[in-house]
């Protein structure tokens, strides 16, 4: 299920709204909320618009829309399609309510904290197993998550990994290039076997016969 939600401005990471979590959830998720803030600092106009970041027993999903980042912390078992459908609903409502105010330079942190009312209402809907089942059946109406980038939090925070689209494209091209090289190498080996395999087998067989004759006679 969705454990917590944070909405921030992409340009500077300013938190605009968040779910009001109880004390127990706040204590359990403090580390992951710190990770969310670190993610906000890494975002820019070139960042991947949708991403899932795995961290321990949770997964942090974010969606970028109109200069705003919508991020939720979910249990790993919670379907990604539902997570991004949830974020999409928040993005549409938030833009309708506050879209014209997001870029104001005098905004204070959590200026739109009243949006928590809609967050909590939407969260309850997505926690309902009947709703989840119904949404899961509407695959054509949900986002295609197969192409969404997946990252590991350790790589992102400690190994300097990036959320930029160009870096992601570069990684994909590098992976494809490596696959191509392996495939080409395999084809070359197969061609060598086809070309020299039979003559080599004959020569080896002849050498083996000579060796046996020498040993036996």
UniProtKB/TrEMBL annotation:
Transmembrane segments: 196-214
Keyword Protein transport included in the entry's annotation: yes
Organism: Coemansia interrupta
Subcellular location: Endoplasmic reticulum membrane; Golgi apparatus membrane
One Gene Ontology MF term: SNAP receptor activity
Main location: endoplasmic reticulum
Coiled coil: none
This protein's UniProt keywords: Coiled coil, Endoplasmic reticulum, ER-Golgi transport, Golgi apparatus, Membrane, Protein transport, Receptor, Transmembrane, Transmembrane helix, Transport
Topology in membrane: Single-pass type IV membrane protein
InterPro entries: Longin-like_dom_sf, Longin_dom, Sec22, V_SNARE_CC
A Gene Ontology cellular-component term: Golgi membrane
Name by which UniProt lists this protein: Protein transport protein SEC22
Boundaries of every V-SNARE coiled-coil homology domain copy: 134-194
Similarity annotation: Belongs to the synaptobrevin family.
Keyword rRNA processing: no
GO biological process, any: endoplasmic reticulum to Golgi vesicle-mediated transport
UniProt domain Longin: residue ranges: 6-119
């Amino acid at each position: 299920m969705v454990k917590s939600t944070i909405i921030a401005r992409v340009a500077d990471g300013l938190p605009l709204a968040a779910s009001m979590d109880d004390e127990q959830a706040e204590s359990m998720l403090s580390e992951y909320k710190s990770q969310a803030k670190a993610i906000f600092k890494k975002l820019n106009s070139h960042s991947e618009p949708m991403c899932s970041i795995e961290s321990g027993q949770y997964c942090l999903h974010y969606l970028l829309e109109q200069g705003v980042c919508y991020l939720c912390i979910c249990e790993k078992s919670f379907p990604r399609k539902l997570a991004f459908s949830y974020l999409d609903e928040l993005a549409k409502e938030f833009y309708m309510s506050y879209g014209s105010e997001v870029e104001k330079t005098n905004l204070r942190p959590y200026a739109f904290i009243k949006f928590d009312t809609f967050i909590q209402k939407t969260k309850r809907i997505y926690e309902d197993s009947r709703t989840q089942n119904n949404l899961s059946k509407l695959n054509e109406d949900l986002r295609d998550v197969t192409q969404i980038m997946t990252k590991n939090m350790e790589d992102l925070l400690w190994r300097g990994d990036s959320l930029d689209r160009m870096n992601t494209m570069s990684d994909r091209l590098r992976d494809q290039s490596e696959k191509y090289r392996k495939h080409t190498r395999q084809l070359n080996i197969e061609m060598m076997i086809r070309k020299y395999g039979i003559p080599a087998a004959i020569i080896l067989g002849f050498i083996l016969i000579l060796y046996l004759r020498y040993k036996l006679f």
